[in-house]
Amino acid sequence: MATTLTAAATGTRPGVRRPTPGRNYARRYWAFAAPGAAVVLAVIVFPWLFTIVMSLHEWQPGAGTSWVGAANYLQLFSDADFGWAILRTLYFTVLAVAAPVVLGIAAAVCFHKRFPLRGLARTIFILPMMATPVAIALVWMMMFHPQFGVLNYILTSLGLPPSEWTYSAATVIPTLVMVETWQWTPLVMLIVLGGLASLPIDPYEAAKIDGASGWQTFRHISLPLLWPFIVVAMVIRTIDALKSFDVIYVITQGGPGTASTTMNIFLYQQAFSYYHLGYASAVVVVFFAVILAISLVLLGLRQRAKWQ
Amino acid sequence: MIRRRDVLKVSAGLLAAPAIITRANAQSAFDWQQFKGQHIEVSLTKNPRSDVFQRKQKEFEALTGITVGSEQIPEQQQRPKAALEMASGHPSFDVLMVSLHVSKRLFGRAKWLEDLRPYLENPKLTAPDYDFADMGAGAVKTATQPDGRMDSLPLNPDLWIVYYNKALFKERGLAFPDSMDALYTAATQLTDKGKSTYGFVGRGLKNANVPVWTSWLLGQDQYTVTPDGKTLLTDTAQAVWAGELYQKLMRDCAPPGSIGFNWNECQTSFSQGKIGMWLDGVGFSAPLLDPKASKVVDSVGFAVTPKGPKAQHSASFVDAMGIPAASRNKGAAYLYCQWATSKAMMAEILSTGSGTPARISVYTDPAVVKANKFGKEWLDTVMESQKISAPGLPEIVPVTEFRDTIGIALTNMIAGGDPASELKKATAAFQPALDKSNA
Q1: In terms of domains, do A11 and A140 share one?
Q2: Residue A99 lies in a domain
Q3: CB-CB: which of B83, B260, B268 is closest to A148?
């Protein structure tokens, strides 16, 4: 006697054809992915490939192009200005990551506690993140004026000596980091605050029962549990700091002298001041490799920091 | 006997005479409406002259029937934008305000701008009262390429002068110095760091600071490159002397932080009444006479750059108006350039203190002199500086790279570096770039 299988037994609904095993149905859906793929090709892949091609040429507007192979890269690696630009970029990045991360964590812990007008305080705290970088830079530039800026007025009013801020090679990078910290600490705060809100309360109750102090609770419970979120904030801040251009360009243009000429400023000068487009393209390729390498290290760190 | 037919003939002739005369006059007058209905785009650098052009734009449109779209972009951003658009062969503008002191040779080598000599010689395109001969010889020379092409019409030679605080000079019983060495002496006498008063302020920011040094170098009657543009003269004894003067003034007599000052920080410092002298472009005069922003409205003085050991020159930097060779509206664009550099517009520029036009006649026009709000001393200083003007930057292709390289050396001098070593190092660093550009 033939057995009739029910729809439930076969796992299909009545009237619906089962997929034929071994047949590739993905081809049907390429039409839906094609527009997005075309955009990615046009605005990401093509410019990237064209930049690599440009980096292998000598290219100056008005003077034509000529193939030079790896000459731009060889020149780059023997260019002392480029080497110094990398070092300044790393110096700037380390400070511009450490300061907002530390302050952002502290701010997150404060804003995690309940107090009157907490919502208003949080809103005010994140306002710097909303402003445009160029506008911020112009305002800070006025504040930094050695004779007529408000910052030196405050310092002298408090009996402290005035500072040269961005007008001295020794203080320019820390001063620029101050601007970055002011703007991006709220971002770190938001990320860590989100992490704090997601933490379980059981460990805290246990710690309270065991008589742990506030610092011990933070050091042995909050910090380890927050570590994955902190690493995310560090990755984002590192990439942003490495790419930082607008604030530095508007305030110092890489000066005094070359004291704040980071890789981005160096790249801009080569491309748009000196019109060495081929050489600048080689800088872009190397810069991309540097950012990629640092990002992979940080992402590896994040992977290890994941909760088990 | 007078017949009725004869009377009718004479009457008809008398009635038609005015129309015939008018038509004859129209045929001999310049036709500003010959490109009526066309539209042009104008790219201007941000400065007071551009404000005048935009304010008067409707007059041009009414005169010519050409519609105009114009934009002002800060100079440092406009230069690469213009260069890259013209390199693409499809610039978005038909008229370009050109900073000749930076872009002349780059644009000339690439022949990106139209040669305007045929336009000037064509009576159908150039109005009979345009009077190109009225343009200053120095400005015309600057607008002319080494191969003889004139690819822009000179507009505004910005002349470097010394602004000085008459009140501070009077307080110390000093007269304005008549030489560069005396200028340093006066600056040290005016400096009182305890009272935050300084005898001098000048640009220290790299690139921007080079014209300060070249102003001193012109006092040695020397330029920065040889006339053929192939060999640098930036480490000669005269160049080192200019570097030493720059270093002394900036270290001994300038306010703290001037190592990073551009013209705007210098202007702010000077306008607050605590600076004795400021060497910079005459185009920055207007805010100093604004009572809302300046404390030196009644005490600011204007003086010609003092003479050096061998010569007296005023460094000059020329703006001009050009037409991209790729423009599809060259005729209409030329009418705009002609209008912008006409006597009427240059008189407007001078009388409103918006610049120092390239035409000579406007400086002695009684109406302009009367309308000028900056006073006789300013006008006399400008006219005197015009007579002794000399290019403040070399006419080479990689001017920006030159300014950055020498500018870093100058900044290092402010920080204490030895002028001779710094200039020697900078010269060795830049000469290969100059050689490559001349290849």
Answers
A1: no
A2: yes
A3: B268
Closest residue in chain B to residue A144, using alpha carbons only: B257
CA distances to B325, B393, B396 from B110, in Å: 10, 20, 13
- Residue where the block lists tokens 């480029």: A82
For B74, counting Cβ atoms within 10 Å of its Cβ (0-12 exposed, 13-18 middle, 19+ buried), the class is exposed
pLDDT in tens, A21-66: 666 666 778 888 889 989 999 999 999 999 999 999 998 887 888 9
Evaluate whether B126 touches B119 at the Cβ level (below 8 Å).
Answer: yes
What part of B 257-276 touches A (C-beta under 8 Å)?
257-261, 265, 268-269, 272, 274
What residue type is assigned to position A304 of the chain? R
Amino acid letter, residue B258: S
The answer to the question of residue A67 being in a domain is: no
Tell me, yes or no, if B83 comes closer than 8 A to chain A by beta carbon: yes
Query: What Rg, from alpha-carbon coordinates, does chain B have?
Result: 25
Chain B residues touching A256 at Cβ < 8 A = 204-206, 259-260, 411, 415
Is the CB of A252 less than 8 angstroms away from the CB of B112?
no
Contact list, A166 vs chain B (CB under 8 Å): 260
Under 8 Å between Cβ of B135 and B92: no
The torsion region of residue B131 among left (phi > 0), alpha (psi -120 to 50) and beta comes to left
- How many structural domains comprise chain A? 2
Question: What tens digit of pLDDT does each residue of B326-384 get?
Answer: 999 999 999 999 999 999 999 999 988 889 999 999 999 999 888 888 889 999 999 99
Cis peptide before A14 (omega within 30 of 0): no
In a domain, A9, yes or no: yes
pTM listed for this prediction: 0.85
Looking at the structure, tell me whether residues A228 and A268 fall in a common domain. yes
Q: Quick one: A24 and A155 in the same domain?
A: no
What integer is the mean pLDDT of B223-252? 97
B74 contact A CB<8A = no
If we measure between CA atoms, which residue out of B135, B211, B164, B138 comes closest to residue B377?
Answer: B164
Residue A62 falls inside a structural domain: no
Per-residue pLDDT at A20: 63
End-to-end CA distance of chain A: 55
Contact B322, B316 (CB under 8 A): no
Residues of chain B numbered 169-208 and touching chain A (CB < 8 Å): 196, 204-207
- Interchain contact B158–A (C-beta under 8 A): no
- In this structure, are A50 and A81 located in the same domain? no
Looking at residue A65, what is its pLDDT? Answer: 87
Residue of B nearest to A58 (CA): B436
Same domain, A176 and A264: yes
Q: For B5-28, what is each residue's pLDDT tens digit?
A: 655 555 554 554 444 444 334 445
Instruction: Give pLDDT, residue A218.
Output: 86
Facing B260 at nearest CB: one of A61, A252, A269: A252
- Inter-chain CB proximity B260 and A256 less than 8 Å: yes
- Pairs of CB atoms within 8 A across A/B: 87
Domain that holds residue A8: 2-55
Mark whether A32 and A174 lie in a shared domain.
no
d(CA B107, CA B402): 17
Give B-chain residues touching A146 at CB under 8 angstroms. Answer: 255-257
User: Cβ–Cβ of A147/B206 closer than 8 Å?
Assistant: no
Using beta carbons and an 8 Å cutoff, which residues of A are at the interface with B? 61-63, 145-148, 162, 164-169, 172, 252-258, 269, 272-275
Q: Which residues of A touch B86 (CB under 8 A)?
A: 61
Q: Enumerate helices (H) and strands (E) in chain B, giving the number of each.
A: 18, 9
- d(CA B426, CA A83) in angstroms, rounded, equals 18
Contact at CB, A62 and B110, closer than 8 angstroms: yes
